[in-house]
What does this fold into?
Amino acid sequence: MNRRSILGISAVTALGLTVLPGSAVAQQKSIKEQIVGTWTFVSALDVHPDGRKVDRWGPNPKGTFMFDGNGRFAQFITRSDLPKFAAKTVDQGTAAENKAVLAGFVGSFGTYTVTEADKTIITRVEGSVFPNLVGVEQKRSIVSLTADELKYTNPATSTGFTAEATWRRAK
Amino acid sequence: MNRRSILSISAITALGLTVLPGSAVAQQKTLKEQLVGTWSLASWEQVMPDGSKVHNYGTNPKGVVVFDANGRLFVMFARPDLPKIASNAPRTATAEEAKALVAGSLAYFGTYTVNDADKALNFRLDASSFPNQVGSDQKRTITSLTADELKYDTIALAGGKISVGLKRAK
It folds into this structure.
């Protein structure tokens, strides 16, 4: 082995290490690697027992679903027509204002894991504005996943219905 | 130059490239680079104009603040003792339950910017569980930032100063 061949091998090795994250690995990314990041809410439909699909989020809903690289998630979905509180402080909402907020948004955070084999995301809620969810595991089955769009079904939402949700990657 | 020295140079070069992101660059990180990630709420305290202290989310609050690398923000604070809804459905909560949940928690998301010069954060709220805040800009001043701890202050709308303490989530 001469000097040139040693340099050649080193160069190939270095090149291989550099290129790997951008190409070869990208083609075999796990589901977890693909979902990490921030997603913007598009829609979620509650599927009632009789098959009806109901949009409880109204026009121009807003939401975000964040998955960090360390297994933590944060999620928020809200109607865009929640009434402002007349008293202007959060602890002085009227019964109607408080009711509208609770019925018109969901928010929670905690940890998540991905089961690659059956394409499910399992969240474990550590904190939620709906405290009944704290400590609960929620399973979402991925219907489709591309670089820009995530679709899943949630068989047991806080409303008791199955939901079909669509998110697009935040830019 | 012999075979061994060539191999050594190659090895050092490779090692240098590998180590760089973890050491040299870490020392010149911007505030934003230091903020990015998920933080857990450690403390939340409001000092009123008369000096009295208020803990709106209790003395052992739960919460999270997430700064993503693209400038997106998520914040949620909640009392650890929020009452469970007896009917098990948010839309059929009693008036007392609804009031306790809305007043004892806060969640919002939006975007953030960082001003390195004056250690200021600006939060722009796209959505909030307190609807009056939607669309607002809110300024925070960083008072402490290490790899594991972040503290910031804000002037409360109702008067006084709110101090938030966060630990990096593991």
About this structure: The beta strands of chain A are 37-47, 53-54, 62-67, 72-78, 105-115, 120-128, 137-145, 149-154, 162-169. The two ends of chain A are 50 Å apart (CA to CA). Residues 6-25 of chain A have pLDDT under 50 and may be disordered. Chain A touches chain B through 55 residues (CB under 8 Å).
